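Thought: the user asked what ABC transporter permease looks like in 3D. I have the sequence; next I should run the structure tool and report back without guessing.
Action: structure_tool
Action Input:
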Amino acid sequence: MNIFLRAHRASASAGVLALAVLLVATLSGLQVPTLNLLGGGKSYVPVGVLLPLVGVSAIMSFLTNVPAEIEATAVRPVQRYEALAVSLAVVLSLAVGALLGFTGLQEHAFAATRNLAGYVGLAVLGHRFLGRHAAVVIPLIFAFACMTAGRKAGGQLWPWAWPLFESRHIPAALVAVALYLIGLVFLLSKARPMRRAKDGP
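Observation:
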């Protein structure tokens, strides 16, 4: 286990993820001005749409920045350990977000950590189908699309722009969890391990 954690640079990834959760706890209530490309002029979106991307980068670094030759010789079920570690990070983040949100300390915190879970699923899918460099780019593009085109001209949110919805919006939470679980299935798949290899653009 110690070799596994060192090979994955777990301490560095955990530190960045902790920083992301701290930013969520302190800043997720802020609103970011953005231009609505669908009309209606300038609008404001919660910074919780963007902050989870910091945590996603930490988690994907944990998963992908491991030399292939090290894990090729592993005798333990490495992918199960990776899935367990990522699930622990996501569940703990959601727990912190729920605690902050439902105690009134930071009402937007759960939405931000919910977005983290969904973005992780998107990142794993991006890595699997488009290569390791797409792992963080896909959630970033999606977050930008939500910010600039997630609202109708009248101000209502499009259903697909789930990261923009408030913490208590159940369908947004269900979509985020579904994306994460789909990503987890691919993470556990043995067809194409997530290693630092020349396997994509």
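Thought: the tool returned a structure. Summarizing for the user.
Final Answer: Structure for ABC transporter permease predicted. The beta strands are 31-35, 42-46. The helical segments are 2-7, 10-27, 52-64, 68-72, 78-102, 109-130, 134-149, 170-188.
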